[in-house]
Design goal:
This protein is of the alpha+beta class. It has 6 helices and 11 strands.
């Protein structure tokens, strides 16, 4: 089972992962109202079960409530075709309207189950914003991995090692460790088959601008922390 970005962010918030302020809208009028409440530049993001929305025109920046309304009108009802949808595409029914944040760099974080050894694999990379399969094929050395015993869970030294490998320092180091811990807790609590943040963007305030995918398995993963 796949869930939308806005739903994944609500789950991540429950586990201490900082996400931008925002809400989902089903109409252009709702998008305008949300943008007015946020009182800042916003990003309007098509909500479909597929990655690659940015390159397909499914993510738009709006500097005013009126621009947010226009962006939502252009997206809602549109058939969006990305590298994950196939040629038939997916129809956009809702958009996420959220505050924009200063971006310093794009990172990747993901958790999957390695059934061959009944362990979880936590992966991070400085190559956020790029399909992780492409990074694995072309620059595998840029993916850092930690194997996690689900009976023990993510250990603090493992989180610190990954954050150190990403080159984060100071406040970003502290918030990054909390971020990875929260992502792991969300993955386990939802019995997910995949948890992926691509891209994750540390900001100057230490908060996280995240674009998550969280796929609850409906109990099919068969491995619990």
């Amino acid at each position: 089972m796949k869930i939308h970005e806005y739903q994944a962010k609500e789950i991540l918030k429950q586990y201490g992962v900082a996400v931008p302020k925002g809400r989902v809208a089903s109409t252009p009028t709702e998008a305008k109202e949300i943008a007015a409440e946020l009182a800042c530049s916003v990003v309007v993001k098509a909500q479909i079960h597929a990655g690659g929305r940015g390159k397909a025109g499914g993510i738009k920046i709006a500097k005013s409530p009126e621009e947010a309304e226009k962006a939502a009108a252009e997206l809602i009802g549109k058939c969006l075709v990305t590298y994950q949808t196939g040629p038939e595409g997916r129809t956009v029914r809702k958009v996420l309207v959220e505050e924009t944040m200063e971006i310093e760099e794009e990172l990747y974080a993901g958790i999957v189950l390695d059934r061959s050894c009944s362990q979880l694999v936590f992966m991070v990379s400085t190559e956020g914003g790029v399909e992780i399969e492409k990074v694995a094929a072309e620059s595998p050395e840029k993916i850092l991995k930690e194997r996690i015993d689900p009976c023990v869970g993510l250990l603090p030294f493992q989180a610190r090692r990954m954050i150190y490998g990403l080159g984060l320092k100071g406040d970003q180091f502290k918030s990054g460790a909390k971020f990875l811990s929260g992502l792991y807790k969300a993955y386990v609590s939802t019995d997910a088959s995949l948890a992926e943040i691509n891209p994750g963007r540390p900001t100057g305030s230490g908060s996280q601008q995240v674009q998550p995918q969280l796929h609850p398995s409906g109990g099919q993963r068969g491995l619990h922390g």
